[in-house]
Hints:
Blueprint (H helix, E strand, L loop, with lengths): L2 H4 L4 H12 L22 H9 L13 H13 L3 H4 L29 H6 L4 H10 L1 E2 L2 E2 L3 H8 L6 H12 L14 H8 L2 H9 L1 H4 L25 H9 L4 E2 L5 E2 L11 H16 L7 H7 L1
Antiparallel strand pairs: 1-2, 3-4
Amino acid sequence: MPYTSYRGMTRADADAIYAYVMQLRPMKVANLRTELGFPYNIRLGMMGWNLLFLTDTIPAASTGSSAAWQRGRYLVDVLGHCGECHTPRGILGQMELSQPLAGFALGRVAAPDITPAGLASRGWMAAALRTYLSRGIASRGSAFSDMHQVIVLSTKNLTAEDSDAVVTYLLGDRPPPAAPLPAADPAILEAAANGAGRTNYVALCAGCHGLAGSGMPNTVVALRNNSTLRLADPRNLIVVMLDGIGPENFPHRASLQAMPGFADKLSDQQAAELANYLRVTWGGQKSDVTVAAVRALR
């Protein structure tokens, strides 16, 4: 329950949500028994946590002052509570408000850095980001895991004005230019092209994603220009390689076919080599994924 973000909600919006919820027909479902252990099952403990960490203001993740920026800040930080996943957390579960929207691995899949600098570093620009929030698929990739639910249950329903406001806030009134793909060392590129990682890519991945990583529109996501490959942290790439992704439906009748997981076909060493090939070839990243990193996520 993201009350730490909802705390900033206007009374009018709180009343509107209450009115909507109260007109829904209740379902006859028994409440689940609380299984929290001591001391987490003591509700009064929240008073101490709130005293330490609850605040009325969430610092802005970008700079701006326009009406669209102000509206976007409210949508992102309060109603959308994006920081509950995308902001790093401290040892007691509190959001580290000195790093708003800087990215965090709350679960198996990490919520990436969505500050203006973080988005620009992965090539995101306003038009692509707007398309992503409304459709779930853009030139930089597609939504998966928890973000897929966010798109299909929430952001696709934003009005055009609110969608523009969200993008304005995420990038700031003066968006930084999208960073070009980092130039890779020719020697590293050549090593990747002739290494075991490419062999595994051709054997397991190229049949769908293509030798050039172009994918197939509304069927298979492209790897060329893919935002996930440009993340410094390889966690999400490794998890997708091992676990796969189920078939996904998106707004406007777009869909992607299922991607199988390869945990049973790739050893830790082979998975690390494949991840390094993908990141070097299409992500502009270093060849630094280790066997230990794969083993930790398997």
